[in-house]
């Protein structure tokens, strides 16, 4: 199967983690200029634009772009993966030729950030969840975990082990925020945030951003290191965590993942590298199972056997993840960036001879999902 | 924490639910178009089949503890640690709530434990449905 669309520019913000000298829109612009420079393009070469959180119109104006196609899909942290999917379809349909996708977030410094999405009292969350103290991610995204743990007989050590292994990857990445090794006991001894989640099982709060440039594979031949889009998927379930149909499995993950694998025409054994958006330590367990890399209930043992760790047969979250690399609030762009680095062969913790990378994102709290399968092969 | 917890603002689709709650009744809805399944939160159509032919009924108030976290961070109207719980109603739907008259500890909050409904009045118009361990 020939791959029709390629990423020809990809970059993160010049700095990552603590960036007190840029506002949110400035982070978008820094990442955009870095990605355009990576592709050897100028803003005037871009005719399609997508972003989330900020207005795509504001960004086009700010960057000097005249768009013929715009996507402002905003479903939380996996929005940028959906933008890749939508942009690929738009280029294939001839709506535009060269798409820029940007992300920037002053998550830590809070310089001109977008307002946090607090539910209004008349919204369904405002009526049926916020009155019970479910406020912001640590008391919402985490709620399903105990049901998962009881259903599969998984203990708190399994959550801690996710953080431990991701720190091992972070130690190999000079740009990672937290690089010092950490033990299961240290994770289990860190401050309680929302039982059973302790501080080191929760993502960082960072400043940062990233941007991508996509075009048709025919044009991509003129660019260095094109990375092809082999398969894509997306889905959604519920913004109310209480209405997630089964707290031990994500329907949105399953639907998105199945579609991505089906459209790529590959199997799990073909995958060399995997990124699973990790806002909290339970999410990679759901991801491994709901994407089909492990049978239900077997992800914790799979990780304990070090298959996802450095030297393992399925390297997962090789940048250190949201738990140790960086997490500015909408982490999906960093999932994409690391998959693309791996496919270009330039990742700090490079997986030798990697040809296929799966990037999986989540939006909200198991609310939305998108999966992108990248490859450095022009066709399978 | 001082301040009060966020309170719901009823909408046309949920006003009957909150009116019933204020009278001490947990009102659910079910499809009357043949699928008969109970659902939550309130809406004027069945989320399983799309039929607008739905009716309200009083739930038993019996439930089990489905999942939860115990928040150790302050929130308006809450004194940590407090549990954010999802309960599974006897009729099938799940809803978020708090578990009251119970230690907010993993030892006291056992998944699948039986619970019973208690309302706590917040304002003249709003009573919130909470649950308490059913030791009966």
UniProtKB/TrEMBL annotation, chain A:
Residues 233-375 form the Thiolase C-terminal domain. SUPFAM superfamilies: Thiolase-like. InterPro entries: Thiolase, Thiolase-like, Thiolase_C_2. It comes from the Bacteria. GO terms for molecular function: acetyl-CoA C-acyltransferase activity. PANTHER family: ACETYL-COA C-ACETYLTRANSFERASE (PTHR42870), NON-SPECIFIC LIPID-TRANSFER PROTEIN-LIKE 2 (PTHR42870:SF1). This is Acetyl-CoA acetyltransferase-like protein. It comes from Rhizorhabdus wittichii (strain DSM 6014 / CCUG 31198 / JCM 15750 / NBRC 105917 / EY 4224 / RW1).
TrEMBL record, chain B:
Coiled coil: none annotated. It comes from the Bacteria. Residues 58-120 form the ChsH2 C-terminal OB-fold domain. Pfam families: OB_ChsH2_C, zf-ChsH2. InterPro entries: ChsH2_C (IPR002878), ChsH2_Znr (IPR022002), NA-bd_OB-fold (IPR012340), Thioester_dehydratase-like (IPR052513). SUPFAM superfamilies: Nucleic acid-binding proteins. This is DNA-binding protein. Residues 18-54 form the ChsH2 rubredoxin-like zinc ribbon domain. It comes from Rhizorhabdus wittichii (strain DSM 6014 / CCUG 31198 / JCM 15750 / NBRC 105917 / EY 4224 / RW1) (Sphingomonas wittichii). Gene3D superfamilies: 6.10.30.10.
């Amino acid at each position: 199967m020939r791959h029709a669309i390629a990423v020809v520019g990809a970059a993160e913000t010049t700095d990552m983690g603590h960036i007190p000298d840029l506002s949110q829109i400035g982070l978008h612009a820094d990442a955009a200029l870095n990605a355009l420079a990576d592709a050897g393009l100028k803003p005037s070469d871009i005719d399609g634009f997508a972003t989330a959180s900020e207005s795509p119109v504001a960004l086009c104006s700010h960057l000097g772009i005249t768009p013929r196609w715009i996507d402002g899909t905003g479903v939380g942290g996996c929005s940028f993966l959906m933008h890749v999917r939508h942009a690929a379809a738009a280029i294939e349909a001839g709506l535009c030729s060269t798409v820029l996708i940007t992300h920037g977030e002053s998550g830590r410094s809070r310089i001109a950030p977008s307002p946090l999405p607090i539910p209004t009292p008349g919204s369904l969350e405002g009526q049926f969840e916020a009155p019970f103290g479910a406020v912001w991610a640590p008391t919402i995204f985490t709620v399903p975990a105990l049901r998962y743990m009881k259903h599969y007989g998984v203990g708190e050590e399994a959550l801690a082990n996710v953080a431990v292994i991701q720190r091992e990857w972070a130690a190999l990445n000079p740009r990672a925020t937290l690089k010092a090794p950490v033990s299961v006991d240290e994770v289990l001894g860190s401050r309680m945030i929302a039982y059973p989640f302790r501080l080191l099982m929760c993502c960082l709060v960072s400043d940062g951003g990233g941007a991508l440039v996509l075009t048709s594979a025919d044009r991509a031949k003129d660019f260095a290191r094109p990375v092809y889009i082999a398969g894509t998927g997306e889905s959604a379930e519920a913004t109310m965590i209480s209405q997630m149909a089964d707290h031990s499995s994500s329907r949105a993950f399953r639907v998105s993942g199945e579609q991505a694998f089906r459209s790529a025409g590959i199997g799990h054994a073909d995958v060399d590298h995997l990124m699973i958006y990790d806002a909290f330590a339970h999410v990679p367990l759901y991801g491994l199972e709901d994407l089909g890399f492990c049978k239900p209930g077997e992800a914790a043992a799979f990780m304990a056997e070090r298959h996802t760790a450095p030297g393992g047969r399925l390297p997962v979250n090789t940048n250190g993840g949201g738990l140790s690399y960086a997490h500015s609030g909408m982490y999906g762009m960093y999932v994409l960036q690391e998959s693309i680095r791996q496919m270009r062969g330039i990742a700090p913790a490079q997986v030798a001879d990697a040809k296929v990378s799966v990037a999986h994102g989540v939006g909200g709290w198991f609310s939305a999902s998108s999966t992108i399968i990248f490859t450095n092969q022009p066709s399978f | 924490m001082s301040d009060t917890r966020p309170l719901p603002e009823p909408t046309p689709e949920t006003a009957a639910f909150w009116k019933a709650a204020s009278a001490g009744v947990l009102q659910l809805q079910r499809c009357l178009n043949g699928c008969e399944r109970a659902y939550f939160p309130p809406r004027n159509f069945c989320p399983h089949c799309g039929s607008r032919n739905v009716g309200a009924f009083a739930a038993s108030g019996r439930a089990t503890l489905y999942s939860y976290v115990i928040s150790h961070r302050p929130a308006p109207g809450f004194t940590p640690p407090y549990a954010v719980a999802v309960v599974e109603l006897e009729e099938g739907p799940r809803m978020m709530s708090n578990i009251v008259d119970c230690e907010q500890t993993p030892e006291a909050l056992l998944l699948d434990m039986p619970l019973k409904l208690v309302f706590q009045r917040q304002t003249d118009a709003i009573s919130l449905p909470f649950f308490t361990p059913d030791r009966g």
